[in-house]
Each structure stands twice: as C-alpha cells, then as structure tokens.
Amino acid sequence: MSMPPPLLYYIRHGETDWNVEWRLQGQRDIPINARGRIQARRCGEILRDLLARDAIDPAQLDFVSSPLGRARETMELLRGTAGLEAHAYRQDERLAEISFGRWEGFTIAELRQRWPDAVEERERDKWGFAPPEAESYAAMSIRIREWYDALARDTVAVAHGGTLRGLVVQLGIASAQEAPFLDIGQGVVYVIQPGSMSRYA
C-alpha cells in the first residue's frame, strides 16, 4: 500500500501595508506591519494547539518558508510563539508568491485607468492570464505542485495567498475558475490533504 501524502499546515504571511492598500505585491519584498506581526504570533498559538491536540511532536515536522521577507518574518514569529527556535527552518524558491511583473505596486483601480483592456482580459480568464513580464496562476500552480510532490514528511509552510490558490487547484480542492477568487486569510492556519482543506483561526 502506498503511504498517504504528508499533512500540510499552510500559513499565509501576516498583513503588509500593501495588503491594506490592495496593491499587487507579487515578488516585491514588502515587510509585514504591526498587525501582521500579531497575526504571525497568533498562527504560532494556533499551530501549537493543533499539534498538542493531535499529539504531534514539532521536531518531527519540516518547516519551510517562501524566500520573501514577509513570509520569513511570519515563520520566525510563529516558531518563537510556539516555543521553537526562530531560525530553524528552510526556504524554498518555489514557494515565492506569483509574479505580477510590471503590475507589482499598482492597485487594480490604477491598472484599470492605465491598461483597461488588459485588466478586462485578466477578468475574463484570471487563471490563465499573465501580466507583462509576469506569470499566470496556471504556470505558478505547476511549480507549487512540484514543491508539494517533493514533501517527504508532515510540513509547516509559510507562503502566500496566490501560491495557496495554485495548490488547491492542483489538489482538487477548488476549480481553476474558483481559486483566483478564494479569500486566503491572514492569522489563519490551513490544514491540507488532497481533496480537503480545514481552516483554523
């Protein structure tokens, strides 16, 4: 019999000022703000409680973060809150947020003023559309699937809203039409297995 896939505890980074302003962040390295740090510590409490509930030793888990600073700071704060050494985790480039290319730093309202046709095209096919010098959700979902398929044990990952949208399509949790519109919360721990995702806040 084949082993079931590892359990994934997935956390989106804490809030940034660009999140508040609805700016497309993508791979820009925007730090988390004061509220984001509170959310990160809250995730550490939620994770600690989930692991205690299920009698899981954190030392048995792999901890991996997106290389972007907002994810790394969230990881370090949540590990510290959970009573773990803050820096004992690894990074994986495949967890970096979807790239919005030349659109990074803009709000959709600003883009609509500058490039209304392109924004309309994106709204018709949010999954397949790629802005200039960027990647589509469809392309990003392939790299996140490669990352997921390489998991060797139960894992805690801190990454981004976009990358989770890509993963849920690959795992059959949401359709390519639904996923780009999913609200991925901050201060939330998602527990993911193929076909199911539970949310703890």
Describe the structure.
- The protein has a six-stranded mixed β-sheet with strand order 3-2-4-1-5-6.
- It starts with 7 loop residues before the first strand and ends with a strand.
- It has seven helices and six strands.
- The protein has helices spanning 17-20, 34-53, 69-81, 108-114, 116-124, 137-149, 161-170, and strands spanning 8-12, 62-65, 90-91, 155-159, 189-193, 196-200.
- With 201 residues, the chain is an alpha/beta fold.
- Helix 2 crosses helix 3 and helix 4 packs across helix 5 (116-124).
- The mean pLDDT is 96.
Question: How are the SSEs placed, and which strands pair?
Answer:
Elements: E1 8-12, H1 17-20, H2 34-53, E2 62-65, H3 69-81, E3 90-91, H4 108-114, H5 116-124, H6 137-149, E4 155-159, H7 161-170, E5 189-193, E6 196-200
Parallel strand pairs: 1-4, 2-3, 2-4
Antiparallel strand pairs: 1-5, 5-6
Helix pairs in contact: 2-3, 4-5, 6-7
Key structural traits:
201 residues; Rossmann fold; 7 helices; 6 strands; alpha/beta; single chain; 38% helix; globular
